[in-house]
Request: fold
Amino acid sequence: EVVLTQSPGTLSLSPGETGSLSCRASQYVNGWLLNWYQLKPGQAPRLLIYGASVRATGIPDRFRGSGSGSDFTLTISRLEPEDSAVYSCQFYGTSSFAFGPGTKVEIK
Amino acid sequence: QVYLVESGENLVQPGRSLRLSCAASVVSGINLVSHGVQWVRHVPGKGLEWVGLVWSLDNRGHCAESLRGRCTIFKDYNERTVVLELNNVRDEDTAIYYCARDMWAGDFRYFDVWGRGTLVTVST
Reply:
């Protein structure tokens, strides 16, 4: 069973800065099955990135996914106040769908 | 826009059963029962937890190992909804429950459309 860890737990940045969020898998995973979601209170979670690096429909190019093997990164450039959220990576397995614990991004 | 809507009991006593439904909003144009649908729950401050799914091509439900024996997921074709039933609920089942559409696009697999979630509290 794949276990995902994310770091840092919390990232506090100013508008305009760039944030890097890490997602590490306990074993090699197929990058086509590694996804990123954005969670905000009271809202539907939003798919940001699928297949490790493909932006979902309507997602601005400030969001970039990268990585392979067991090491993946979500990079958010030119941070805006609306980017304040929890970001969760996910591995879409064959019979289970592991989520990471999330990284909280705070905009100062 | 809100494409999926979760509904059901918000307060359940320990040991009782919970039933949640997931429906597609009219504006979404989604025929939910023709898709695979996932259930995910979230305790604020903790990570998302996968609950289970029902596959797109049939009505086979599959629940997380930790919930097996208590969890049932199926499609209600008459109501065009997907139902999650959780028996013998415990305090630790208190969470926000989300449903999401399961999407297969070539070699990619992901949950592309979600509901806003419904808060379920297990308490006397």
The CA atoms of residues 12 and 82 of chain B lie 20 Å apart. The mean pLDDT of chain B is 94. The two ends of chain B are 35 Å apart (CA to CA).
